[in-house]
């Protein structure tokens, strides 16, 4: 097995711990070969699979979902690389915009000028606020919420909403959105993985709507209108394209279950 790597060498090459390799092995994500003396050895195929695992993990997906994706539509290295390329290109655009904003701000200060409140707000949004906060998202949705729900309805929904851990719910939605992006990159909303995602996505929505179809429909319009508003869309984690994919997956799942 010349040219192959032991756990410590592979972990060092990838920038992870040996413990992490063991976790991925127990999760069934990668199975190293064994020598006659039963020592683990990793070759090129194992390195490729570990790249897939780490790329999807970077998107915030739990290991159980990564296992399902790698067993299905994201089984090939190229499909994961395509998704990773898309995400990095988006991040590169954001970084270029942040650098341009910082450069412009420094140039103005070096010329003896001041930064206005608008300048500082733009600078902060582009160079600091890399994650969409719950507060910013709520503010972005508020105009559409007020159009579709009266103040009394909003109070009633808030009063009747079940108790939940906001941080936990945010993590759950982050995971669902990351998974949706990964599946959308495959372009197949009728895949078993996409239909399973749609079921879990709308089950999450029903936790807060109580399964009321009218509330669910109006909530959908709130998101649709907000995503079409450039001022609101910048603070939302979803895009019309992603919502369309999830909707198509739901229709495929509903048709299958009917």
TrEMBL record:
It comes from the Bacteria. Keywords: DNA-binding, Repressor, Transcription, Transcription regulation. Residues 9-72 form the HTH merR-type domain. It holds the Pfam family TipAS. The keyword Repressor applies. GO terms for molecular function: DNA binding; DNA-binding transcription factor activity. This is MerR family transcriptional regulator. It comes from Allosphingosinicella ginsenosidimutans. The lineage of its organism: Bacteria, Pseudomonadati, Pseudomonadota, Alphaproteobacteria, Sphingomonadales.
């Amino acid at each position: 097995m010349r040219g192959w790597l032991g756990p410590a060498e592979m972990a060092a090459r990838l920038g992870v711990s040996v413990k992490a390799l063991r976790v991925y092995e127990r999760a069934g994500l990668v199975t190293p070969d064994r020598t006659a003396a039963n020592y683990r050895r990793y070759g090129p195929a194992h390195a490729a699979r570990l790249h897939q695992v780490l790329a999807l993990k970077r998107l915030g997906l739990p290991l159980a979902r990564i296992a399902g994706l790698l067993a299905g539509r994201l089984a090939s290295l190229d499909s994961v690389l395509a998704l990773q390329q898309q995400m990095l290109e988006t991040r590169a655009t954001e970084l270029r915009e942040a650098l341009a904003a910082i450069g412009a701000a420094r140039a103005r200060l070096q010329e003896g000028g001041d930064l206005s409140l608008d300048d500082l707000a733009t600078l902060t949004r582009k160079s600091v606020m890399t994650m969409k906060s719950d507060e910013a998202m709520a503010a972005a949705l508020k105009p559409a919420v007020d159009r579709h729900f009266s103040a009394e309805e909003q109070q009633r929904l808030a009063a009747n909403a079940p108790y939940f851990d906001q941080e936990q719910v945010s993590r759950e939605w982050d995971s669902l959105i990351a998974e949706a992006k990964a599946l959308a990159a495959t372009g197949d909303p009728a895949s078993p993985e996409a239909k399973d995602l749609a079921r879990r996505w709308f089950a999450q929505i029903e936790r807060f709507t109580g399964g009321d179809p009218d509330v669910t429909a109006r909530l959908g319009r709130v998101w649709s209108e907000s995503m079409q508003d450039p001022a609101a869309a910048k603070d939302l984690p979803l895009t019309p394209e992603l919502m369309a994919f999830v909707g198509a997956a739901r229709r495929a799942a509903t048709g299958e279950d009917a």
